[in-house]
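Can you give me the bound-state structure? Components:
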Amino acid sequence: MNGFTAIYRRELVGLFLGPLAWTLLCIALALQGVMLLFYLVGAQGDVDIALRFLLGDSFVFWVLCALVPPLLTMRMLSEESRSGLLEYLLTAPVTDLAVVCGKFGAALSFMAILWASVFAYALVLAACGAGIDWGIVCSSWIGATLCSGLFCGIGLLMSSLTTLPVLSAFAAVIANLVLMLLPLVARLVDWPILTGLVKWIDISSNLTSAFLYGVLDSAYVVFFVSWTALLVFLTTRSVEARRWS
Amino acid sequence: MISVSHLTRRFGSFAALDDISFEVNKGEVVGFLGPNGAGKTTTMRILTGYLPATSGAVAVAGFDVLRQSLEARRRIGYLPESVPLYRELRVEEMLAFQARLHSLERGEARRRIPAVLERVGLLDRSRDLVGTLSRGMRQRVGLALALLPEPEVLILDEPTSGLDPLQRLEVRAILRELAQKHTVLLSSHILPEIEAVCPRVIIVHKGRIAADGTPTQLVQQLSGGAFVRLEALVGADVEAAKRMLGGIEGVRVVRDLGRRGVHHEFELEAAVDVREDVGAIAKLKGWALRELSYRVPSLEQIFARIALGEEPQAARSEPVAQPPAGTVSPMPSVVPPASNALPVSQPAATRQIYSLNPFDRGASRDLSAPVNVDAPAKVDAPQRPNA
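Here's the bound-state model for the whole set.
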């Protein structure tokens, strides 16, 4: 546990010591802010619908989900294995799981900070006199964070498989896009196998069908948590496998 | 403290370590020596729990590094060869991170960090970013990291590689100081360093332990005694001279190293120093002595021999530097004793003489031309006798 907090703190601090995190934060917030304006106009002033678009029901949200986590996680394991820092961490008295979890936690926290911008928007809107349903805002934020946790897991797994950050980011973006587009493809081609498969990994409908309406349904929470846990577990194994190769 | 038994590590079909066994007791300082690719780093990585062994058992401070990995790792301070550090952190932050990894109490860490920085001489740089430090400074940060948890065992992989001679001296001084408190296993391929710091040396070669002992022991065991080198004008009957030298008590082998100009060179392998006996013979026979020297081969020569895959024996001493240009006069004028005519196998016009070039071992030159002292390059004809 000590090891986890140490590595978590180091990774989070490390993210904010580099320019990448600030750049990502800046671009994402600018994009979200501009889009919110459009959503508000499009929803004819319905704040709930606009905020729902902001955290899940829009194209921009999914693009951010596909791109930001891979960029955050790409260096976490691949570069460290090349620079020897992984050797340093893996010979310290901490478990492999603590190392991976610390890094994953840092990426997830960054995404949580990114999506927390919704609270700022809601506050501003509330100050302007709009009636905000804070329950929905909170549950949407939790949903968006859980969802991006899954993508962080994918990014971390890819990072553990290569020693080139660029390659790991590329592979993770591809994997994210495949996962996101699979439900669409399944609807188009209508293969029974694919439809059956999609039932298990349909990320977008798992996010949009409950969290965005203020419902914290344990089934959907379990969906995200279990997939993320599986990815973190696989990453741990992959880090461990490096020792044997 | 460290016990390694029948350790084997394979990478695919390549055996990086092949059945290695050794023990390091508490308080011992052991140098791990070997050419590149001998298995030093692999051994250290296995000791620190980074790599698992293919077979064999490794225990550090009584804990199996595979089964009780965390317990063992808590007792090891490890400095990897590449000295991995977070470049974006400050020196003291890096140390604070290490303290947290080793679950040190906060107050304890606050007390130890300045102490450790003081020890490696970085106290005034503690606010510097690691990325801005020079290689030697970073090496010291790495050393401080390894020392911070006050481990029972220190494993240092090439702690002085990439340092300039001055920094190397400093690190060596730190190591010597550490040796008093910790069990240290350090690897290096710089021999003087190992000889200076480590009372015990383990030489690994091709994944096996080639030798284990104190430097003096190793020299004695592997070289088989001392060597006396003789360079003299022994006359025509070289065989007779060789026989005579072989007759000296204690001499095991006499090697004929061939001609050096008019002189003949021998190397005697003996259990004791036999210079006086050789000198007595030389006086009796009227040999003109040019050199009579005694030397024990250095660890370096033995190491080179092992590394080159030769039988460790007969560390042949390099010929002493030739007289520098300018002191030519006596060279060509040595006259052999009249009784034994000098056997000259070369054509009459050229005769072997000593070159004026201090880096040359002797060259042929046309004796009809005078030696030009001012332009030694011309005298040094390119045809060497041994080439």
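A couple of observations. The radius of gyration of chain A is 19 Å. Chain A has a mean pLDDT of 91.
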